């Protein structure tokens, strides 16, 4: 147990109490973030060391890491220290931030966890993003994240830790004059004269590191603490660590100085033999030099590491830049010869000045490519830019097991391949320099490299709202590459079809190309989507979409959007079972591939499916995952789309304010009008305005959405009940003739297409226009009948609620009760809270006594609890459930725990029998 009697923790009682409280909270399932922010030498490391000891004593598993300035470009370097077995996983699915988060959550599920990171200001970007994700979600995990960092080195990724909801910031203060006096007196084993004590406090400024060094110097120098020694105190420890370090080094041998310099150059995790060789010392001499440096308090006795980062910084800064560069380059060669991790070798090369070295270019290209594969494009950009500076004509070797998404194809010149990789990395990092590098690579002599570059460049154009330029770029590349690689040419044609969809004025060109393209899966997927938007019968749309998905080829390319077009088409024609099967299959592929883009796409598709055909809680969970993923990717259109999907689920759940806020955020994220009308942004704003009692403004928003559809030749909204909402808005605005005409037209179209859900919604909206109660009831009877033929429980709940309310208004209260009871039950099942309340209120008015919402038994489960319990009952593991539903492992555990309590069971094996036939409902 660490006590405040320990000299190093003097005047740190408040910080220790906070750390203990947060560690105890983690033991009881309440996570938090503790940031220890102070200047160098102010005691951060000591507090973190105390926290580790406290955590171990409290029974928490402790993971530790230290940031290093030389390793800021080592992809996931800090995370690799926390999870040493991560090497293989980093190249696969666990490289993704969500996967890493789940890894920590899984460890915390086994035992409460303390994650301690010192010098976090030097952590690499990938590690900081991972820790940031953990910090945002930590409150419901038995985890405490403790990070030490300096206050003068903030950046956005560090600021994200401070912004975490559960973050506490500690600022260890300089030691008081009294504390300095007590510490120095303890070292001298006697009382201090006030003048001596004052000199000690002024000399150190209360910096704990300088106080420690002063105690060491005074004890070794035979000081007694008298007033006559005050001037000597001021000279004993210079005002800076740098002068102190150099003073000690000057007392040592040349061998010790050489080793001190070598250790400052190499990474602390490097094999000691590399440092010895860099210092030019055989092992016996090196061991003696190490002992001498440890004796002066500069190096740790047991390993080649400085006792404090400031010590290392002082030695490093004393080496002139030209010599430093040569030493780093020599260290890189020694590391290569010793078989060190190539990322550590690359760190040495990055610290040296460029020297047009082909071998260095090869190393940096491989490490840059590896960083790109592992999901850290910022690190990749730094490595690849440096590789470009190292060579003009070398041929870097591609890394083994290269991901298809980051190609180095064919026997090509290094600059072209390097420019391609660099452009891809910059594109994924959101760096505008991607355009120039990809454009240069697209002019390469090799048509395959040029085509790959054109493919990436086109995506940059699309994201930037330049769909026409994207089409021109791809057209030229297709013509060049078709004779040598027809398969790649087909890939580019698929990208072209997708890109054309992002410009309303290119809709006709897209249709022409679709008409003459061969019937391969991606083309069929786009055709199915187009057919759905142009109002084709549901059977025709379904047949084309199923052909697109039949051979499974689209699922094997999860980063390509074609499979999502097919799924959207299926959902648009209410083919719920087929769409769900496709989503489940895509989910499995995405998990295997570890594709962040693919994960975002499938999370979005699941959010849409759950909204229309499942339950709104699940839709919200998947939508939030999609937003979090898309926030880390370039492309505002996708962000607007996922925010709109989540807002739609929130609106139907009754959370109007949050839905409105999300749309406001989406408007800021994407100001261009090239966003696809499939997004339904304006239509959903119209629904919210209607909910607020502003029908005229609602009509204007919906008409803006419909104008986008007309520019594309679309006659059917693929998402949200747009036209049914417009009927209601027109009626509320008193424009009854327009509302009736629209209702009749939409009713005919829905029946002709075989869309029973759309038919039901139009009938519900049209019933408001009835001239008599009997006519209203008749319309709503038809609405209920149509809704029962639809796979959407939400639509059925809406129709039954409207029908029951109409019966009650027609003074048929007894007849109203059964449909209202069924509506209420369905609303509970789907998570439509506002609709459930409306059905409940109507039941009360109809003279019924609605049963209380069940709080136990199968009926008491929320939709999310029920879904998790059903999957667990089928034998799925918690991790598989989390991945399938796009929620965290902790969320699954919480839902299961609540389900156990409501069902009165204590184990997973009891779920199937307890749920019984209820799960099938």
UniProtKB/TrEMBL annotation:
Domain HTH luxR-type: 854-919
Gene3D superfamilies: Tetratricopeptide repeat domain (1.25.40.10), Winged helix-like DNA-binding domain superfamily/Winged helix DNA-binding domain (1.10.10.10)
Record-level GO cellular component terms: cytoplasm
Keywords tagged on the record: ATP-binding, Nucleotide-binding
SMART domains reported for this sequence: HTH_LUXR
GO molecular function per UniProt: adenylate cyclase activity; ATP binding; DNA binding
Keyword Cell membrane: no
GO terms, biological process: regulation of DNA-templated transcription
Protein name: Regulatory LuxR family protein
Species, as recorded: Solirubrobacter pauli
